[in-house]
Structure formats: C-alpha cells, structure tokens
Amino acid sequence: MAEIKRKGARSAKDIPATILEQLNRGRIETVNLTEWLAVDQRILLENLLEEKGRTSYLAPVLETIEQLKKQTVNTINEAIGKGLYRVVSQAGDSHFLEEIATHPSDLVRCWATYYIASDKNHSVEEVLELIKPFAADKHFGVREISWLSVRKLISADISESIKILSEWTKSNDENVRRFASEATRPRGVWCEHIDALKQQPELGLPILEPLRSDKAKYVQDSVGNWLNDASKSQPKFVMELCERWRKESPCRETDYIIKKALRTIENKT
Predict the structure, then answer these.
(1) What is the separation of C-alpha 18 from the centre of its chain, rounded to a whole number of angstroms?
(2) How confident is the model at residue 269 (pLDDT cuts 50, 70, 90)?
(3) Which InterPro entries match (predicted)?
C-alpha cells in the first residue's frame, strides 16, 4: 500500500509522536525541513544497525559523532556516513552500502552519499557516477546532501569535474542537470567556497551555457545563484555574460536567470 501523502508539521512540537517514531525507525521519509531537523540520527542509526544485524558498528560511529566540535544535522549526517564507511570497510561488509543506498529513510540514503565520497579508491568520474542516483533522488534532502558530500572532491579537481558534469547538463532529469550547477557554485551554501571558480568563473561555462534557457525553474534558480555567487568577485564577467545571453537567448527562462544573476550587482548600484 502506498504511503498517504502528508504535509508535515510546521514546528517540531507539532509532529505527532507516531510519525516521529516512524521517522526515527527509518520506516518513512521526512516530508519537510521541520521533520528533517527533528529526526534523532543517533536513534535512527541504532535502529538501522539493529535491523540489519550490525550492532557492532554502532559504538565506533557514535564515537565519531562525539568528537565533532560542532554538532548540527549536517555535521552529524557527514560523521555517520564517513564513520560507517570506516567500520564497514574494516569489516569487509560488501553488501552494506547497497542496503543503505536504497533504504526507505531519506536520512539513511544521505549517509550513503558520504559513505561513497569517503572511498578514496575511486576516481572523480567513478564517484560522481555512484552519486548520480542520489542527485536524481525524489527527496529534496538527499539531493542537497548528494552534492555536499562530493563538494571537496569536485573542488580538488575542478577541471575534470566540470568536464564530467557538463555531460550531466544533457540529462532528461532536471535534478541531475541541477546537480551539475549546484555542486559547482563558486560560493555555494553550507560549504567551502571554490576559489578557482570565484577567480575564474569562465571555467564553469561548459556547465552554464547548456543551462542558460533550461525549462525547469529548479535548474534556473541554481544557474542564477551560480552567477550571483560569481558576481561578488567577478562582476564584469557576469554582466558581460548576461548581456550576451540576453541577445543570444531572448526568452523568459533566460531572463529569469539573468534577473537572479544580477541581483547583487543591481543592489549595489
């Protein structure tokens, strides 16, 4: 039986106890940010490992969490994913990744992205290919964490990453196209900046050009934000690019992107 769609509570105190229990047991997905923030990832981890018969993994991963200087939903999420990779790889457990990558809980699937990003035996191309299903995930949280999990890897080899991700802009899936843009934003959100793109945003053109008139607002927002990021360090580049796009691509989709791209520049004038 398909799960009945629900709107989700607006505040944590309004989440029904039965819903919170199911979330902490990994039985259902979160439906909004309020629920996403309310899940106790330690409890979820314990329930997951008990369900999968891997309780021996619990203590080392919890220790990883306790060592965090700052404990937030995102840092705990990352710590669990990386911690699981360490203990699972030491145990030689070849089936665990598949089990969490397809788990009903969106937060467990988020852990899987950090697990994948922790494996240094893969090339950038291999890691991104493994991350692609998460970039296309139906859940907003998994899609966000998917690019966050590989952000450092992308930044460390920006030329190769852009080459690979430029092919993603051809995808029929707007979530995959959006990943290509969002993962390479010069300043990004909740993450370290990519200095190479702050100083040389033209390096991102192989991703930006194919998306300049994308039909999906989800993609348009990301491209506009990408260029707005770039405008804070290279305003001339952004203004010239937007002017060229305005002439070469006169449509409402491009106009929308340009408006978002120039908002910081226009606020200063």
Answers:
(1) 28
(2) low
(3) ARM-type_fold (IPR016024), DNA_alkylation (IPR014825)
